[in-house]
């Protein structure tokens, strides 16, 4: 048995990269929150949709991407780069890779900020970026992984602390999620179609979407909690055994829960049931993390009274506990039947995002920035102000959205004594919850003001200090043949072997993924075909792409669930076979407006013409923005044949004649719609985008009526 060398090696920690990610976190956080306030305002004031590029449908994904990948993403990297070096007693593996990671990630964010308002989107929630940006994300993520594992391999500390387990699981799982969900067939540099269609595409998306929350917004933040909370409180983690148990249980169970986003949908019942079962089980490991965090503060609650940074941590961890209790509850079918498509889900998501991710990030930045700048925090008064404004902002955001969600869910399902829908006009529910949306905007504004106060405080802190770019330290080198101490916990053996940790994490997340995905793709009975369902015409396909470009799926679902209230309101419930040619699926996740799956033939072409031009003229009180540009912009048909060719490669049964005559057929159908509009004294060019959109809307849900 060897003894560890007492010879100390001198080296330095890289604080410059940490500083860069911290500044990016602050700046992008304010940008993302500002866009959030704008879209919150647009949901009660249509005039706030100033331009085509600033409409709700286009900038809503800008908000989600900015907050998740720019604000939270940069915060993760700042925390990981700071903690990893100190936990491993080693400088990051490569300064070049650190710089490439930082600037590459910022370039990706800028690319998203440019493309999403331009309408360049895939429409997959939290994965809207087109294929070239997806490739860039892959390369930068691999860069991060190489840098992280390179640092682990050259470490001077044998033991891999619990935070590092979460970092490793995050890296491998996000890689698997991103690669699987980004399988697209490119048509041009700015357009692609998902290789999956309909039900399979929905399952892949929410397997990704739910686990993006799990492995980008949760596991890395648990790692950060395990590092920064003990440092802030000067207390050891409450339970080593609990950290082991909840880590492995969390990553195994979380991956199964995605189907709970698709309850009462066209997804096979067995997959829905699996999602429900594992979602309920998920509360145990989730609360294991919360309990381990809060009990770490035992004996330190007197500090919480005085230390505002710890207050941020306590509210953040408590918000995590609330959100992870509510998530399993929302996966129960009887509750999901009311909550899904309502503002209740918006409230749930933001309790986690604003409380857990936001407050933990704020606490980390307040603790970390003064240390790397060798100074004290500029103003204790400003940090206290930020805490209370932020906390009130969360309350004023979430509580109105809960009320709004309950109201929507109840009104949508309410019947009269005579057996008819009490609120048959969807707009009745929209108008009822407008005051709640106004309060939500106030809450969001307060939260944004708090973030701005933090920015002032931290930038002033940086200005009064000096960055310790290379923090010199020393540690003993790692003894190659060092063995675990006698009687050590069995898990110590795994902790010393990063590749085994990586492989074990991969196996854990692949089990549930493969069990859910393979049968849905391979067993034909999971998606019964409907003979009457035919591919979209070339004009309808172009109209569908306009619908996607304008982000209409952000407000309108295309999925009628099998409830009496929905079939009375919208028509026949949706069948899985109706979506077999939908690349991508457009079921949506929120109904700000009514469902559109049975829209075809419900109104004449002229109704859609006037409704898109001036929504309030057809639906008084509507909060939908006007789409006047569709009447001015000519439809671009230069890629129409390429689009049909791509669809054919994906299995859509277009024949060679349809592809060859795609533009001619498109022109013919356009003129037919133009002629019908002319009969109602409406003059519009057959080549305008509104014609294609009308064609698509009039097609929706009409196939099964032809049987």
Profile the largest sheet.
2 strands, antiparallel
- Placed side by side, the strands forming the largest sheet appear as 1-4
- Low-pLDDT parts are none
Mean pLDDT: 95
Determine the structural class based on helices, strands and strand pairing: mainly alpha
Residue share in helices? 55-70%
Number of strands: 4
Radius of gyration: 27 Å
Percentage of residues in strands: under 5%
Distance between the termini: 79 Å
Question: How many H/I helices?
Answer: 27
From the spread of the alpha carbons, the general shape counts as globular
Detailed description of the structure:
With 707 residues, the chain is mainly α. Helices cover 62% and strands 3% of the residues. It is built from 27 helices and 4 strands. It has helices spanning 16-42, 56-88, 95-115, 131-153, 162-181, 198-216, 219-233, 240-254, 269-281, 283-295, 301-306, 308-330, 333-339, 343-372, 380-413, 426-432, 434-464, 491-495, 498-522, 538-549, 564-569, 605-613, 615-618, 640-649, 656-660, 662-678, 689-699, and strands spanning 9-14, 184-188, 191-194, 470-475. The strands form 2 sheets. The protein has a two-stranded antiparallel ribbon with strand order 1-4. Helix 2 (56-88) packs antiparallel against helix 3 (95-115) and helix 22 (605-613) crosses helix 27 (689-699). The longest helix has 34 residues, at 380-413. Keywords: Cell membrane, Copper, Electron transport, Heme, Iron, Membrane, Metal-binding, Respiratory chain, Translocase, Transmembrane, Transmembrane helix, Transport.
């Amino acid at each position: 048995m060897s003894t560890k060398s007492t010879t100390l090696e001198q080296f330095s920690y890289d604080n410059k990269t940490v500083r860069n990610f911290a500044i990016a976190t602050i700046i992008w956080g304010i940008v993302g929150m500002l866009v959030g306030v704008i879209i919150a305002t647009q949901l009660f004031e249509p005039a706030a949709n100033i331009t085509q590029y600033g409409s709700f449908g286009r900038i809503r994904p800008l908000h989600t991407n900015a907050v998740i990948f720019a604000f939270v993403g940069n915060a993760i990297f700042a925390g990981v780069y700071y903690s990893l070096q100190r936990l491993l007693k080693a400088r990051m593996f490569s300064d070049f890779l650190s710089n490439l990671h930082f600037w590459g990630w910022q370039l990706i964010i800028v690319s998203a900020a440019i493309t999403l308002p331009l309408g360049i989107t895939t429409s997959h929630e939290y994965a809207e970026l087109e294929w070239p940006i997806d490739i860039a994300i892959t390369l930068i993520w691999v860069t991060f992984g190489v840098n992280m594992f390179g640092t682990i391999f050259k470490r001077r500390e044998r033991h891999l602390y619990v935070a590092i387990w979460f970092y490793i699981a995050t890296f491998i799982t996000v890689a698997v999620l991103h690669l699987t969900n980004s399988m697209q067939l490119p048509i041009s540099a700015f357009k692609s179609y998902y290789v999956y269609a309909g039900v399979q595409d929905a399952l892949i998306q929410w397997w990704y979407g739910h686990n993006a929350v799990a492995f980008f917004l949760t596991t890395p933040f648990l790692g950060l909690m395990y590092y920064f909370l003990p440092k802030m409180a000067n207390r050891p983690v409450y339970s080593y055994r609990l950290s082991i148990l909840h880590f492995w249980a969390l990553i195994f169970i979380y991956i199964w829960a995605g189907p709970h986003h698709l309850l009462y949908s066209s997804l096979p019942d067995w997959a829905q049931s699996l999602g429900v079962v594992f979602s309920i089980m998920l509360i145990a490991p989730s609360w294991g993390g919360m309990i381990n965090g809060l009990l770490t503060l035992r004996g330190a609650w007197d500090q919480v009274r005085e230390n505002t940074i710890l207050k941020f941590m306590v509210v953040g961890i408590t918000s995590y506990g609330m959100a992870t209790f509510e998530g399993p509850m929302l996966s129960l079918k009887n509750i999901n039947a009311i909550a899904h498509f309502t503002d209740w889900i918006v409230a749930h998501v933001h309790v986690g995002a604003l409380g857990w991710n936001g407050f933990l990030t704020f606490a980390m930045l307040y603790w970390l920035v003064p240390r790397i700048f060798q100074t004290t925090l500029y103003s204790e008064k400003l940090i206290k102000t930020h805490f209370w404004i932020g906390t009130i902002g969360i309350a004023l955001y979430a509580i109105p959205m809960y009320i709004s969600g309950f109201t929507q869910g109840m009104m949508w399902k309410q019947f009269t004594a005579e057996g008819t829908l009490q609120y048959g006009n969807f707009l009745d529910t929209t108008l009822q919850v407008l005051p709640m949306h106004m309060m939500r905007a106030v809450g969001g504004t307060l939260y944004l003001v708090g973030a701005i106060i933090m920015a002032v405080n931290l930038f002033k802190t940086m200005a009064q200090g000096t960055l310790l770019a290379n923090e010199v330290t020393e540690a003993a080198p790692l003894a190659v043949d060092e063995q675990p101490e006698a009687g050590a916990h069995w898990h110590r053996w795994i902790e010393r072997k990063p590749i085994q940790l990586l492989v074990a994490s991969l196996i854990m997340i692949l089990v549930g993924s493969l069990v859910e995905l393979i049968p849905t793709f391979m067993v034909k009975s999971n998606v019964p075909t409907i003979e009457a369902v035919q591919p979209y015409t070339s004009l309808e396909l172009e109209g569908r792409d306009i619908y996607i470009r304008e982000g209409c799926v952000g407000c309108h679902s295309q999925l009628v669930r099998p409830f009496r209230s929905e079939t009375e309101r919208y028509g026949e419930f949706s069948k899985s076979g109706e979506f077999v040619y939908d690349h991508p699926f457009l079921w949506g996740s929120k109904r700000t407006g009514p469902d559109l799956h049975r829209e075809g033939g419900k109104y004449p072409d002229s109704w859609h013409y006037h409704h898109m031009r001036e929504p309030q003229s057809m639906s008084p009180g509507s909060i939908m923005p006007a789409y006047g540009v569709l009447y001015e912009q000519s439809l671009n048909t230069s890629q129409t044949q390429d689009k049909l060719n791509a669809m054919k490669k994906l299995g859509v049964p277009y024949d060679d004649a349809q592809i060859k005559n795609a533009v001619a057929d498109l022109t013919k159908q356009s003129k037919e719609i133009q002629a019908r509009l002319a009969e109602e004294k409406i003059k519009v060019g057959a080549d305008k985008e509104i014609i294609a959109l009308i064609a698509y809307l009039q097609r929706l849900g009409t196939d099964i009526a032809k049987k």
